[in-house]
Amino acid sequence: MDHDPKVPTYQTSDPTSFAHKSARERWPAIVTGAIDDVHRTVSCIPDSDKDALAEGKAITSALATLKYELQHNRVLGPIADDGFPDVELYNDELAARGPPTWHNVEWLFSECYLYRRIATLFSTATTKPWRDYDPFYRQKMKTFRSSRPAVLELCARYRQIVEQIRASSRDAPVGADVTDPTEIEEAEKLLFVEMAEICLWGNATDLSLLTSLSYEEIQKLQGSNARKESEKNILVNDFGAAFAVLTRALKAKREIRRVDIVLDNAGFELFVDLILAGYLLATGLATEVVLHPKDIPWFVSDVVPKDFSALLSAMADPRAFYEDSPDADADADDEPDNDKPAPLAEEEVANVQFLFDHWSHLHGEGKLILRPNRFWTHAGSFWRLPAVAPELMEDLKESELVVFKGDLNYRKLTGDAAWPATTPFTEAIGPLGPGSGLRVLALRTCKADVVVGLPEGKDEEIRAMEGGGGDFGARKWAWSGKWAVVQFSDGKA
Ligand code: F6P
Ligand code: MG
């Protein structure tokens, strides 16, 4: 807490903040989803496995208790010791805060606490399948399956680009029939921006928010037309600065040109993160990409290491993944299209497998690296990073560019504080800003109140639009993932 910005933070007690709605409506729905998932797994355990059955039932009842507590505004109780050092950090902070009640507590702290508490139910379990079980895994895979049209479209595009890169020299660059170096660079920049935009908008479809969207609506959000239309919704766009940094490192022929991606969601968003990573490695804009997943199930859809292997397995055998849906029966009620999925065309299968081969090769060669760290599931802001996780901070300094994906990472970068919207991004990220030794690029679709770095008057202008929240004294426009910011800070300058 001592390291956090000295600016008031968003609270679940504030009716104008998305925190209020999250605490009262979304969290109970999310815990209910976890209960349903555990229940479904319990129903598959044979009667003879009495210990696992008993443990599954105990977990269901602990989740129901948690839901009761948060719906009835009870005090946040201490987290049970599961042997990980962050328990003490959580519990000390809980005590220092009161302890608080669910409807009157800092949003960022309490939301992290919620997922940490859920994780403890599985980290303290002793039987299979509960030990380290992920109650959101099923949901993550189901949503990834429903992204099929966008995945197939992007696989075709990615394959085309990577094959062109392989075939071309620097004099005949990808997507351009030009030899003038300025034009070449411009063409390369366009392609970089296309890949980075794909990566940005992949964040619009996360599970903790999209409980109310239909299968068709999710698909619409992911196609290339949607992306073009959404360009005008990128309120601050620093893609150019990020590209400049990466090209500079390439031209300087720096031997190791590392890019880090602090991941957000699994499934489709992880897929598009890998598109960007694979593209950077194919062009030489990076020689290694380090991916930072979470260590425990987090904010429903966040990537844990198992999601990475599950994604690669799905892509290794796309027919099995897309054509034989194991959830077909269970999903028949909630998906409009409950017929057997259409078979994939030969070319579609080949395209998906092309990506699988490319990515698994990069992973095998040590160019695409997965590096979890417990810090990412701590409660507080990233303002705490240099003091609380100095070795992680030092590691990130080795990178040319650290990309922070998604809304929660943005909330953590800025301390989830009620900054004036015109506050410079470099100021709002405090110790990760100027002089930090880190280059930060936030790719964020807005799904919470905090936003910084906007031009004068922009917040007011969007608030005044229909549904913008002005009439309610809120920044409602920033809650739905429709608007985005791409913000850069050069802490190495
Ligand atoms: O409660 C809403 C919320 O926590 C957002 O603030 C938020 O960050 C989101 O869920 C998850 O978004 P993302 O996956 O982009 O971090
Ligand atoms: Mg997330």
Automatic annotation (TrEMBL):
Residues 1-21 are annotated as: Disordered. GO terms for cellular component: nucleus. Keywords: Hydrolase, Manganese, Metal-binding. The keyword Metal-binding applies. Its cofactor is Mn(2+); Ni(2+). Residues 23-461 form the Damage-control phosphatase ARMT1-like metal-binding domain. It catalyses: beta-D-fructose 6-phosphate = dihydroxyacetone + D-glyceraldehyde 3-phosphate; beta-D-fructose 1-phosphate + H2O = D-fructose + phosphate. InterPro entries: ARMT-1-like_metal-bd_sf, ARMT1, ARMT1-like_metal-bd. It is an enzyme of class 3 (hydrolase). GO terms for biological process: DNA damage response. It comes from the Eukaryota. Pfam families: ARMT1-like_dom. One of its GO terms (molecular function) is metal ion binding. Its EC number is 3.1.3.-. Subfamily III proteins have a conserved RTxK motif about 40-50 residues from the C-terminus; the threonine may be replaced by serine or cysteine. Metal-dependent phosphatase that shows phosphatase activity against several substrates, including fructose-1-phosphate and fructose-6-phosphate. Its preference for fructose-1-phosphate, a strong glycating agent that causes DNA damage rather than a canonical yeast metabolite, suggests a damage-control function in hexose phosphate metabolism. Belongs to the damage-control phosphatase family. Sugar phosphate phosphatase III subfamily. This is Sugar phosphate phosphatase. The lineage of its organism: Eukaryota, Fungi, Dikarya, Ascomycota, Pezizomycotina.
